[in-house]
Specification:
The protein has 229 residues and is of the alpha+beta class. It has helices at 2-9, 22-37, 87-97, 106-109, and strands spanning 44-54, 57-65, 75-80, 116-120, 124-130, 144-151, 156-164, 174-188, 191-205, 209-224. The protein has four helices and ten strands; from the N terminus they run ααβββααβββββββ. It has a ten-stranded antiparallel sheet, with helices on one face.
């Protein structure tokens, strides 16, 4: 189900007690998205851990990202399925990951034009909205709902959740009955950075093949290499 994974993975004001109008809500969310997208991945090193179970087969990856190194050497594979990788595996991982980094297409995961306020506190505000991802196909329209929580003090995105409310077919012969995506973020030096993502997906392919997939990715040990403005 690479089509689904690529669609999901292939990213202001300072403080106020409440937001009064629909237009203001949209502007607030759009600025929070822009704040995340403005973070330059080339200014940060980080540790990367990805664990995935697909059709019963588990893959576990530990790696480090070094943006200051030459292209093709920025991603360094440390462990693959619990063991040190071979030189060939290190080279293949670095090459395949070169253009991926940690950027997330939030403009595709969040719909600021159709927001409803779910809850609001002095600290943050949570919106719900219909999710429309073109890469998931027309059948998914109206069958996915999302929520985004934004810190009202820092105007930073803290969490995104997307779930399905009905079965949908992203590609021919595939039928997804359960889908869940959770993404968490952290703010360091006023930059918004990914903290973790978790996905569950269940369904069938070609009527007889079960789709069972879970994956979790964590980003940690961030080190800032740029010049603080």
């Amino acid at each position: 189900m690479n089509t689904v994974k690529y669609a999901l993975y292939s990213c202001l004001i300072t403080a106020f007690p409440s937001l009064a109008t629909e237009h203001t809500h949209q502007q607030f969310v759009e600025k929070a998205i822009a704040k995340f997208q403005a973070t330059e991945r080339g200014n940060w090193t980080f540790a990367y851990h990805h664990s995935e179970v697909e059709e019963g087969e588990k893959t576990d990856v530990y790696a480090q990202y070094h943006p200051q190194k030459p292209r093709g050497k920025r991603w360094h594979l440390l462990k693959l399925n619990g063991t040190p990788p071979t030189p060939k595996q290190v080279a293949e991982f670095a090459s395949s990951r070169e253009n991926e980094g940690y950027r997330v297409p939030l403009s595709e995961l969040i719909n600021p034009r159709s927001l409803s306020v779910e809850s609001e506190t002095a600290h943050g505000i949570t919106y719900t909205y219909p999710v429309q991802l073109a890469d998931l196909g027309k059948d998914a329209i109206g069958k996915l709902t999302g929520s985004v929580t934004i810190n009202k003090v820092t105007a930073s995105i803290e969490e995104i959740n997307i779930i399905n409310t009905d079965k949908f077919s992203p590609v021919a012969l595939a039928n997804i009955s359960h889908f869940k995506l959770n993404m968490r973020f952290q703010t360091l030096k006023n930059h918004v950075l990914p903290k973790s993502s978790y996905m569950e997906m269940n369904g069938t392919f070609s009527f007889f093949i079960d789709i069972e997939e879970t994956s979790k990715t964590t980003f940690s040990d961030y080190q800032f290499l740029g010049t603080q403005k």
